[in-house]
């Protein structure tokens, strides 16, 4: 995974010349639609997502079950709708954790400098060198399946990306003349950071957080597919792909293909939106 700053240069000229890209608008609409579905899922789902009807197992699409039934006799559409909530909640937790802690660490390292900068930079480099998914697997193996353990582990794994980006942005902002003027006027470092530095760097950090959201969704879906994420009865797109393997073997791929497709499209949508946001911020700053 790369940061927004390393992803921008190759596509910046193309996107700047293309104006408001149809791909961006489509991605924005799709991402907004997925979020809306996740919020309204309990009212949109036609059936209980965990209701089992073994007599209808692996049944194809019908008026009662528009997207068919999985191998356990559960309605696929209802599990997709409710699964959106779980599939988005986990990445949101990862992004909030990594962004809050990463911004604090990066700001402290850039503002204080010296030994603190060296210590924090070496610590984030150590975390950066450790694969995030492997860290999540180790944590889940200790604390058992569930959403909290992988979210915390991936939040720690994503922290260096936010921290290093924030540090570079704060260093550049700290060198501006108006920041020096505030210091001469007697404002404390905490006041300057909260009122002037952080608001200035926030757009880029939030753009990176949007990109990280897509990657976190993909990582958590992969862990659920391996059986290391949410419990078996919890609707989740990654878990649905795992559960749908049996249906694929019997020639009923919808219960596995549809959640897999939703994961891919949602990751792409959030990445496009995040990169477009980063491009706009970079053009305004330039």
Chain oligomer state = single chain
Alpha-beta classification: mainly alpha
Please report the distance between the alpha carbons of the first and last residues. 25 Å
Computed CA radius of gyration, to the nearest angstrom: 22 Å
- Largest sheet, described in full? none
- CATH domain class name: Mainly Alpha
Q: Compute the number of strand runs.
A: 0
- Number of alpha- plus pi-helical segments: 11
Q: Which residue ranges are poorly predicted, with pLDDT under 50 across at least 5 consecutive positions?
A: 1-18
Give the overall shape. elongated
What would CATH call the homologous superfamily? MetI-like
Average predicted local confidence, pLDDT: 84
CATH architecture: Orthogonal Bundle
Number of domains: 1
Percent range of helical residues: over 70%
Explain the overall architecture.
The protein has helices spanning 4-18, 22-44, 76-112, 114-128, 132-143, 148-174, 177-184, 189-225, 237-243, 245-249, 254-285. With 286 residues, it is an all-alpha fold. It has a single domain (24-40, 69-285), classed as MetI-like (MetI-like fold), CATH 1.10.3720. It is elongated. The model is unreliable at 1-18 (pLDDT under 50).
Keywords, separated by commas or semicolons:
286 residues; mainly alpha; MetI-like fold; 11 helices; disordered N terminus
């Amino acid at each position: 995974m790369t940061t927004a700053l390393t992803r921008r240069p190759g596509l910046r000229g193309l996107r700047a010349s293309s104006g408001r890209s149809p791909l961006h608008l489509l991605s924005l609409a799709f991402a907004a639609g997925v979020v809306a579905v996740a919020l309204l899922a309990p009212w949109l789902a036609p059936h209980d997502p965990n209701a089992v009807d073994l007599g209808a197992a692996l049944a194809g699409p019908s008026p009662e079950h528009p997207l068919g039934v999985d191998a356990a006799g559960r309605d696929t559409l209802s599990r997709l709708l409710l699964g959106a909530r779980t599939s988005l909640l986990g990445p949101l937790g990862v992004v909030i954790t990594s962004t809050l802690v990463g911004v604090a660490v990066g700001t402290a390292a850039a503002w204080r400098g010296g030994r603190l900068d060296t210590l924090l930079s070496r610590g984030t480099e150590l975390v950066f060198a450790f694969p995030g998914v492997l860290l999540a697997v180790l944590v889940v193996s200790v604390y058992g399946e569930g959403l909290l353990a992988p979210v915390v582990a991936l939040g720690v794994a994503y922290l260096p990306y936010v921290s290093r980006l924030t540090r570079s942005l704060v260093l550049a902002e700290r060198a501006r003349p108006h920041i020096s003027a505030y210091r001469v006027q007697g404002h404390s470092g905490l006041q300057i950071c909260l009122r002037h530095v952080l608001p200035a760097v926030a757009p880029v950090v939030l753009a990176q957080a949007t990109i990280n959201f897509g990657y976190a969704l993909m990582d958590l879906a992969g862990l659920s597919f391996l059986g290391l994420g949410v419990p078996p009865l919890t609707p989740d797109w990654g878990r649905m792909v795992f559960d749908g393997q049996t249906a694929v073997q019997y020639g009923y791929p919808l219960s596995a293909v549809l959640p897999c497709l939703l994961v891919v499209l949602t990751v792409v949508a959030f990445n496009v939106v995040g990169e477009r946001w980063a491009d706009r911020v970079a053009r305004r700053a330039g």
